[in-house]
Amino acid sequence: MAQRKLNFSAGPSAVPLEVRTFQQSCISVCGANSVLQVAQEEMLNYKGCGASVMELSHRSAEFAEIVETAEADLRDLMGIPSNYKVIFMQGGGTGQFSAIPLNLCPHGKEQKADYVVTGTWSAKAAKEAEAHIQVNKVLPKVDKHVGIPPQSEWKCSPDAAYLYYCDNETIHVRSHLCGCPKNLGMAGVTVVIIREDLISPPAVHCPSVLSYKINAENKSLYNTPPTYAIYILGLVLKWIKRNGGVGGMAKRSAEKSRLIYELFDKSNGFYVCNVDRAHRSRVNIPFRIGGTQGDEELEKLFLKEAAKRNMIQLKGHRSVGGIRASVFNAMSVEALTLFLEFSREFEKEHHK
């Protein structure tokens, strides 16, 4: 029986695993339909074809079925209309920082886009876009991103080609995110969902691998795609469908985040989340220990003691410090209970 740790990584994050027991923070594996176990069972011989998925040609009938099923399941789960294209690309969100302006503003510096900069990732996106187009930052620059001004205060351009915003700043953290190495599987594949009438020839200097038009016309097979990552994505989508779909995941996330924030709010300032309540995330939860600025020695001790309990990847991002608990879809409420129990014990022992 395999023993695994509780993984709070912000990404690549835990992949769905159905479990039987939780003892001393170790997960006892069970359930033949878990994503990792299916991948394990099919590793050497995918559905009797005599080869691993990672060995299949992306032009093979077997892989065609994998990518077509993944797209169909994604459309079903998300309710994606037929006039939208689903494209499986590479390069991650960082690649899209360039792909978006190159595709939506083919005339380059003659065109403008609005950017809602609310944290690290949207700031990076705006900086990357500035190499290709005019960028209007609709919000004033701030030292700390703990909230978002009301839309009435945004200074948008009437002639902007598009408005860019990041729905979940995983470092400063707000709202929701559905990212492949977070909620949709493993790193390597980037999912682009775009309305068909927005797809047109990109800027002349746009690399073909970033062209929405080329990749859409070639059904995500213009060049060799991240085949295994798409396969894992497909398994995760099946798992989501078995566990209540998007609604089930939303309910699950709401309950997990409620339990964590309830713990913080009842700690009398021992655990502090500095993000405005209206903009707190359900999946990436940063916090400080010992006050709003944090007690670094207490935080180091918290991480050390958590590691002894087999809880990993809790250290906050280097740019903001503190602790960050990422509780994506793969983490169950039962697994989170172990973290909550440990946190209460730590508070009881160290809160003066």
Question: What topology emerges from the helices and strands here?
Answer:
Blueprint: E1 3-4, E2 6-7, E3 19-23, E4 26-29, H1 35-42, H2 61-78, E5 84-89, H3 92-104, E6 112-116, H4 120-129, E7 134-137, E8 163-165, E9 190-195, H5 212-217, H6 227-242, H7 245-265, E10 271-272, E11 284-289, H8 296-308, E12 311-312, E13 323-326, H9 333-350
Parallel strand pairs: 2-12, 6-7, 6-8
Antiparallel strand pairs: 1-4, 3-4, 5-9, 10-11, 11-13
Helix pairs in contact: 2-6, 3-4, 7-9
Q: Your description of this structure?
A:
This protein is α/β, with parallel strands linked by helices. It folds into two domains: 53-240, Aspartate Aminotransferase, domain 2, CATH 3.40.640.10; 244-350, Aspartate Aminotransferase, domain 1. Helices cover 35% and strands 14% of the residues. It contains nine helices and 13 strands. It has helices at 35-42, 61-78, 92-104, 120-129, 212-217, 227-242, 245-265, 296-308, 333-350, and strands at residues 3-4, 6-7, 19-23, 26-29, 84-89, 112-116, 134-137, 163-165, 190-195, 271-272, 284-289, 311-312, 323-326. A hairpin with a 2-residue loop joins strand 3 (19-23) and strand 4 (26-29). Helix 2 packs across helix 6 and helix 7 packs parallel to helix 9 (333-350). The model is unreliable at 25-30 and 170-178 (pLDDT under 50).
